[in-house]
Amino acid sequence: MDVRRRTVKPLYTPKDASAGEPLKLHKQQQVSSPKASDALPLPLYLTNGLFFTMFFSVMYFLLVRWREKIRNSIPLHVVTLSELVAMISLIASVIYLLGFFGIGFVQSFVSRSNSDSWDIEDENAEQLIIEEDSRRGGPCAAATTLGCAVPPPPVRIIVPMVPQQPAKVALSLTEKPAPIITPAVSEDDEEIIQSVVQGKTPSYSLESKLGDCKRAASIRKEALQRITGKSLEGLPLEGFDYDSILGQCCEMPVGYVQIPVGIAGPLLLDGREYSVPMATTEGCLVASTNRGCKAIFASGGANSVLLRDGMTRAPVVRFTTAKRAAELKFFVEDPLNFETLSVMFNKSSRFARLQSIQCAIAGKNLYMRFSCSTGDAMGMNMVSKGVQNVLDYLQNEYPDMDVIGISGNFCSDKKPAAVNWIEGRGKSVVCEAIIKEEVVKKVLKTEVASLVELNMLKNLTGSAMAGALGGFNAHASNIVSAVYLATGQDPAQNVESSHCITMMEAVNDGKDLHVSVTMPSIEVGTVGGGTQLASQSACLSLLGVKGANRDAPGSNARLLATIVAGSVLAGELSLMSAISAGQLVKSHMKYNRSSKDITQVTSSSSSS
């Protein structure tokens, strides 16, 4: 944190100047500013009560007297002693109340006047001492004579208070710490920055107070640099629409992170070509996926099937006995009651439609896994609102039901779970392609039999040996994460969205390769969240799935899920081929690592 300190000028007497010893600092400590509550030596509540009572009683007294004077035709300027005392008391109480309830300019004016008077006294005292020394002709009689160094005038410097690192040597007395170089700020912004640094203004309230999201981010970034003493020079601020994320995507922004976006494709899927955007910092990933797209394209393309579309939310409720929990389970699962529950659920949104409710009991606790369609939205908020409506209805039917939480992890969101792997969550998709023998050899540089064997030993047997849950693949999460970042999806949902089993089998008398990926829980949307940001919206537009589909609600999100699965198919095909042909290390050294000889660099640096 940068701390501004008022310069204190040390005073020297002729006697001590020769010895080089400074006197004690003159009036070093600042005088605390007066407060309105210091008017009387009483507790604060008594002082406030006294002045409140004085104000209202005196005001009532004066109004009554003035009314009598008007009725009796007595001039108002003719006042008695009691009226004079009342008016003085009224003025005193008004001054106190104004000073206590927010008029702070009087206090700041008084404190500023006091500090200015200290400066004047210091300058006058220093001038007198210099003149005294000149008259006495001491060793430092004049500042311009040779042989006596006069200390330079003090300079006000903002120095970041950075904790000293243990590995660094302490600075000598002649060295000065280098201050952090920051862009110049206006006087108004500087005042707000100081207020944030001092804790007077909460950082989260800058947008609402300033009404300018970009300015708020700039001020917050500068305040953060001063508080931490760390430079954020490499974190860009310009070129981003901060209004678009207010209340939607990110709180208290200080900039944005740059992630390069590459294009893999064209991906020929279901008879249509797609250029797939991938945001990643892993070299070789886009190139590898692009090679898989090339192999699929050369073999006639891939086909996909959407198996299921339903977002889930599972609240947990508790009863006094397991019997009562079982009674609610039977009630919820009864087909005769489903229509009533659907009506309560569906009124939360015109797109939310309840599909099923799956229950599980643990003692006297009941978990109800609601599944519903959510249109083109990913749907977490939508399904949560519908579940809340159903819980409110059930609370009337079962007053002894205690709602522990609207999410009981039986959903299960952003965690690897067998229920998602088996039952599915979001969009369940299977995608397949038949890669011709000549494509396997010329494009993928390997053999069909080698791919089939590797897939069995690596993706199936190896994952089973590791106890994998939904991880029977080579690197599905690589492609899912890259596409999610580029299209504005929730990157944390990569956990369950990357559940995938990759299958490879020799077909057509062992000449061609049948490859497929089955992904039961792809959680995507084309509206809401990060999809409305400019960059992510452009990537969705590139795929032809931007926004909501008015003619067929939900079709854009479902199409995006199949594109994700098709991209994973391409990525799996290419990586497995690289491993089978022994090209993995070579390709990563070419695209993802430096080609410099580290041993030569080390030896040359040591010799120099």
List the helices and strands and how they pair.
Elements: H1 14-19, H2 44-71, H3 81-100, H4 105-136, H5 187-197, H6 206-210, H7 213-228, E1 261-269, E2 272-279, H8 285-298, E3 303-313, E4 316-318, H9 322-333, H10 335-346, E5 353-362, E6 365-373, H11 380-397, E7 402-405, H12 418-423, E8 426-435, H13 437-442, H14 448-465, E9 471-472, H15 476-487, H16 494-497, E10 500-507, E11 512-522, H17 534-543, H18 555-580, H19 584-591, H20 598-607
Helix pairs in contact: 2-3, 5-7, 8-18, 10-11, 14-18, 15-18
Describe this structure in words.
It is a single chain. By secondary structure, this protein is of the alpha+beta class. 45% of the residues lie in helices and 14% in strands. The chain has 20 helices and eleven strands. Strands 3, 4, 5, 6, 7, 8, 9, 10 and 11 form a nine-stranded mixed beta sheet that branches. Strands 1-2 form a two-stranded antiparallel sheet. α5 packs across α7. Residues 1-32, 103-107, 109-126, 128-177 and 601-608 have low confidence and may be disordered.
Largest sheet data: 9 strands, mixed
Can you tell me the CATH architecture of the domain at 259-307 and 420-590?
A: Alpha-Beta Complex
Number of helices: 20
Which radius of gyration do the C-alpha atoms yield? 38 Å
Distance between the termini: 40 Å
- Decide which structural class fits the backbone: alpha+beta
Give the overall form: elongated
Query: Could you give the count of β-strands?
Result: 11
- Name of the top-level CATH class of the domain at 259-307 and 420-590: Alpha Beta
CATH topology name of the domain at 259-307 and 420-590, in short, is 3-hydroxy-3-methylglutaryl-coenzyme A Reductase, Chain A, domain 2
- For this structure, the quaternary state is single chain
Strand content: 5-15%
Low-confidence stretches: 1-32, 103-107, 109-126, 128-177, 601-608
Helix content: 40-55%
Average pLDDT level: 83
Assign the CATH superfamily of the domain at 259-307 and 420-590.
Answer: 3-hydroxy-3-methylglutaryl-coenzyme A Reductase, Chain A, domain 2
